[in-house]
# Entry
Amino acid sequence: MPDEPRFEEESLSDHAAENRRSWNTDSDTYQADHGPQLAASGGMAWGVWQIPEANLAVFGDVEGRDILELGCGAAQWSIALAKAGAHPIGLDLSERQLEHARRLMQEAGVDFPLIHASGEAVPLPDESLDIVFCDYGAMTFADPYVTVAEAARLLRPGGLLAFCGATPIIQMCYPDDSDHPEDRLLGDYFGMWSLPYDGYVDFMLPYGAWIRLFRSHGFVIEDLIELRPGPEATSSFRDESDREWYRRWPGEQIWKVRKQSGADETQV
# Structure
């Protein structure tokens, strides 16, 4: 495996530097708390309720596909994709998360490139990938006005950008003093973008802003999958009361958008 690209902290945006420090600090705890659930799902499952890719068919056939996981953490997804015959690359802002990725790759007996970099500046060639994706990852913790442009640059014509994250609906239902959403709107919808919280900076856009952003970079929207856990679903990220909230309203979503080929003339 080639040496990972390195970057200096001063080359990062302020929010990327803050997120890098926080993820390096919290990585061990995160993997201890959530690694068992991610392992139990086999790696290829979406969101905090780990809904299987086999049920959602976001990717289709991945065999032989060049795939970038944009914010891979410990690379559970990319490991599973490698086992399925894909050619994954894992990128993460946190060097500590990548240390966990190397350990899990060795345990799984797979090998693929890992890149230590920001999702806002990916050191890979133009039009070199078939799929760019993440499950939260960089599309949550990096500026979407930069990452969507990077995905458009990296994807071949016809390539897929797919990512899972929280919805604006659940974001508006969080009180300031709790991690559990309430059953009423508490925050503003218009103007969502940078959302600093407890050492991290998350990003969220209203639906219209996402659509305009995708269109401006030549993407056609194929689907917006609103995830709903089953009535008995469990999560290391959420409790039973949260599950009931997620069963009433969409708390997570997967955007699925495709880069237009030269022959495409219209956008959805």
User: Anything to note?
Assistant: The first strand starts at residue 45 and ends at 46. The chain has a mean pLDDT of 94.
